[in-house]
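Need tokens for this chain, all 103 residues.
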Amino acid sequence: MNIYNLLKGEISQKELLNYYNANITYEQLPNKIDGFVFQFKGIFNIIINNDLSYYKKRKTILHELAHIELNHLGQINSDMFKFKINQYEDEADMYIKYLLEDK
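Here are the structure tokens for all 103 residues:
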């Protein structure tokens, strides 16, 4: 079960969130922050900027799910993480773009 299955309509967003033990919360965030994801006590918490349009919220959720699927959060404890953050952001975007093209 993964994002590809979600994009193809084979599973619902709720099913994927349950699979990843994740939840989504909508919050007021600074203008330039669309969203972020972190893990706490084994639960992935996706925080989405409430001021985004419907389309931008969906895109941001996919982006944050990509971070989970690509195991980027497993790299957070690495001293090198801060030097690779832009690489991880680009990788998550490219992954979603690839999945959408293949859909």
